[in-house]
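[09:14] KT: can someone run the structure on this one? pasting the chain below
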Amino acid sequence: MSWPVSQILQDWAQQNSKWKFYFEKEIGSTNTWAKESPEILQDKFSIYATDFQTAGRGRFDRTWTDPQPGSSLLASWCLQMPAAPQPIFTEQVGKILCQSISKTFPQLKFTVKSPNDLLLNEKKLAGLLIETISKGAQIRVIIGLGMNVWAKPKELPFSTCLSEHLPELSKEDFKSFLTDWKENLNGLTTHTHL
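[09:31] RB: done, structure tokens below
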């Protein structure tokens, strides 16, 4: 592992002051942490990140397995929304994740396994878990993103990681991906039909 993913995310977030950044070295689930945070309805844009999840989750009560601490992007991106998102929203987020990472690494073949898995060469690279909370007129969407960057779970043979295909993965390229991802997420907040 050349650099800890959460450190690059934190450095990047500090340069994007619009996003409030929260970090814990180890947490059960970043989505659960975000949902239970008293700050979530105060922040328009926030990121809850960790190096390791002890109870990472996916859709339909599936689990997310972390290969080793610090090797994955484990974060929940929380957005203020003008209205509750429609069912197509999860699929839309999967598409923009694929677009963002494909723009940064055009030499690789990324696809979406609808609605919430990102594949690299037909193997799972990342997963999304999207949840909504509301209080009165306040609506927040929580987009949990787990991505294998430096390692993949050994017990999951159909998984992969970025470094397997990009041994010289640079911090700058990863920050470029984060910037494009953020810009696409910001665009979602203006589309009330999603």
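[09:33] KT: thanks! The first strand starts at residue 20 and ends at 27.
[09:34] RB: yep, looked fine to me
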